[in-house]
Amino acid sequence: MMINWKKAIGLAAATAMLLPLAACGSDNASEGDSSDSGAITLSVWAPQEDQDGDNSWLSQVEKGFEKAHPEYKITWKNDVVSEGDASKQVQTDPSAAADVYMFASDQLGTFIKLGAIGELGTDAAKQIKEQDGSLEVDSVTGSDGKYYGVPYTDNTWFMYYNKAKFSDDDVKSLDTMLSKGVVSFPLADSWYLGGFYDGLTLFGEKGNDEKAGMVFPKDSADITTYLVNMAANPNFHNSADNSGLSEIQAGTADAFFSGSWSAADIKKALGDDMGVAQLPTFTVNGETKQMKSFAATKAAAYNPNAKNPKAAAQFAAYLGSTEAQKLHYTTRGIIPTDKSLASLTTDDAVAKAQSDTMANTAILQSGLAGMNDWWTPAETFGKAIVNKEVTADNAAAKTDAWVKSVGAYAE
C-alpha cells in the first residue's frame, strides 16, 4: 500500500533535522559553498522501478526534500541508471555523472578511485551510525576509514525452504536437510561458493584493508572435500542459471538459496509452506562450520563534482533517511537497513531472514578493486567441483592452487 506523503511529511521533516550536512568530514567547505540556495538543478540516477508512475517513490522523496529544504528552488533531472550499473556509467566521465546516484556498495572502490563519490559530512555520518549495523556501515567505509554513501537496503542471500518438508530444527543444519530432502544450491556461482569457507576474510574484517587481501581458513582443503562429497549426494542439486527456483516451482527441490528478489516467485510456488531463514551450519571432520553469505548494501551517494555539492550531499542523505526507507518499503517492498523500522517488518519473514543473515551469517563483500580477483577463479573452482574434476583425492592440491592464485591461508 502506498503511504500518504502528506501524513508522512511530519516524520520526513523530523528526519530532515539529521540531514543538513556540515562540511565534508572536518566541517570545512569541501562539501560545497554553504551559500548554496535559490534556484538549483540536481541530476539524479535511480532504477526504473523507483521512477515508475506519477506518484513514484523517487518523486515523493523529491517532494519531501523540497518541503524540508525551502531554501532551494529545485529543478530535478532524473535519469534511469540501476544501482548495479552506476559505476559503469561513471567511468565514462566522472565529471558528467549525476549529482546524486544510487549504487551497489561493492563498487565503492571504483567510485573513490575515480573521484566521483563524496565523503559524508558530520551529520550524515552520524545518521548512518544511528540507523545501521556495523556491517552496513563498513560497506560504505573506504580504505581511508572515511564514510561514503548512505545505505538503504541490504544485498545478500539466505535460504528458502518448504516447511512441509523441513522443521525449524532441520533447517539449522545443512547435513540434516540433505538427509531429508533435496537442496538446490548454486555451487558454481562465485557469489555463493565462498559461503562454505567459514573463516574466509576479504580484505580484513571491515573489507577496506587493501594489504590484508583474501585470507582462507587453514582447513580449506577439508571444506573442499566436504563439497565434493556434497556434490555427489543425490539430494544435492546444483542450481545453474537459477534452475533451483524452477525446481522449487516444480516441486523437485525442497530448499533453495537466493535473496529477497526471489521471494514473490517462491511465495507463489509454496504459499503458506514457504519458509525463510538465515544460513545453516554444516559439519567438517566433526567440527561445526557456519555457512556465511557475501553481503553488501545498496546506498545513495553524491558526486563531489556537482555544481551544488552541498544540496547534492543533503539529498543523498535524505534518500537513505528513515522516512525515505519507510516509503521505499511500503511502495516497493525494499527492505530497510534502518534499525528503527524493525517494527515495520515484524510480520515479514523475508525481511527477518535477511536481517538475521546480515547480523549472524554473513561476511562483508569488499568494495575494493582487489575484489575483482575473486570472481573468475572462484567460479572456475566451483565448476570443477560440480564437474567432478576436483575429487577427494586431489582436493588438497586443487584447493592450494586456487588459494595461492587469489590470496593466502590464515597463519
From TrEMBL:
GO cellular component, one term: ATP-binding cassette (ABC) transporter complex, substrate-binding subunit-containing
PANTHER family listed in its UniProt record: MALTOSE-BINDING PERIPLASMIC PROTEIN, MALTOSE_MALTODEXTRIN-BINDING PERIPLASMIC PROTEIN
Family listed: Belongs to the bacterial solute-binding protein 1 family.
Gene3D superfamilies: Periplasmic binding protein-like II
Domain of life: Bacteria
Keyword Signal carried by entry: yes
Pfam families xrefs: SBP_bac_8
Annotated GO biological process: maltodextrin transmembrane transport; maltose transport
A GO term, aspect molecular function: maltose binding
Segment forming the signal sequence: 1-22
Name the UniProt record assigns to this protein: ABC transporter substrate-binding protein
Keywords: Signal, Transport
